Amino acid sequence: MLSRLTRPQALAVCAVPFVALVATAAFVPLPFSVAEPGMTANVLGANQGEQVITISGAPTRKTSGQLRMTTIEATSPDADVSLGDVIDGWFRSDQAIMPRDSVYPSGKNTKEIEQHNTAQMKESQDTATEAALDYLDLDGKNVKVTLKLADVGGPSAGLLFTLGIIDKLDGDGSGGDLTGGRNIAGTGTIDADGKVGAVGGVALKTQAARRDGATVFLVPKDECSDARSDLPKGLRLVPVTTLKSAVDALVSLEKGKGSVPSC
C-alpha cells in the first residue's frame, strides 16, 4: 500500500532528480567562453622588442605619450566551460561570460581561427594606414607604414593604430603630442573613411587599460553603457564615432580648450 505524501515529503522527493540534474549540468561543457582583461600595448613604442609602427618616406616626430591598444583574453575554443564556470563568472567583475560564437568563428578549428584572426589584424592594419594617410592628405605611394604587433589578432586595434600613425607623422597638427604626454588607451575598429566601429569586451578592456596606467579611454560611442559598467576609478571615458572626433577630443584634452565628450 502506498501512503499519501505530505507536501514537505513531496518536495523532498521531487528535489532529488533536480539536484542530480544540476550536479550533472555543472560538469557538462557549455557553448561559452570565459574572458578577462588581456594585455595592452603602446602602439607608439615597442612590443616584444620591435617597434609597433615604423614609417618611411615622410618625416616622423618623437612622441612622449602613450597610445595603448587593449585586448581581452578568452578560454580557447576547445576548452570546456562548465555551469560552475559560468555561475562564477557572472558574479565577478574581472571576468565575462560570452557566447563562444561571439568570440570565435563557429565551425572552425583552432588553426583556422588563428588564421582568421591574423587575417583580420592584417586587414585592420592596412585600413588604419589608409585612414591615417587620407586624414593627413599624404600619398600612400610615397609613405610606407609597417605595423607589427605579435600574438594579437582581430580588428579592434584599428583606431589606436590610426591615431599612432597620425601622432608619429603630425602630432596635434602644431608640433605637440596628440596625447598631450598622457597614457591614453582605447579600442575600436576603423574603416577607410575613418568611421569607428564597436568591438565588444569593453568593460574588460577598461580594466586592462587602468591596470597599465591609462587615465583616458577612447570607446566607440555605441558601447558607452558597457564601458561604464565596473569602470575603474581614475579612468575617463571619451566616446568617439569617427577618426576626426577622436583626434579633436585628444587635441582638446591636450590644449585644455574646447569640449571633450563623455559617456
Written account of the structure:
37% of the residues lie in helices and 21% in strands. The protein has 263 residues and is an alpha/beta fold. It has a domain at 38-71 and 129-255: Ribosomal Protein S5, domain 2, CATH 3.30.230. A 6-stranded mixed β-sheet has the order 6-1-5-8-11-12. A two-stranded antiparallel ribbon has the order 2-3. The longest helix is centred in the middle third of the chain and has 26 residues, at 110-135.
Mean pLDDT metric: 86
Distance between the termini: 69 Å
| Helicity range | 25-40%
Which regions are unreliable across 5 or more consecutive residues at pLDDT < 50? 1-16, 18-25
Shape: globular
Strand content: 15-25%
Number of strands: 12
Overall CATH architecture of the domain at 38-71 and 129-255 = 2-Layer Sandwich
Backbone structural class = alpha/beta
- Tally of DSSP helical segments: 8
Q: If strands are numbered along the chain, what order do they take across the biggest sheet?
A: 6-1-5-8-11-12
Kindly provide the name of the CATH class of the domain at 38-71 and 129-255: Alpha Beta
How would you sum up the major sheet? 6 strands, mixed
Q: What fold name stands as the CATH topology of the domain at 38-71 and 129-255? A: Ribosomal Protein S5, domain 2
Radius of gyration: 23 Å
Order of helices and strands: HEEEEEHEHHEHEEEHEHEH
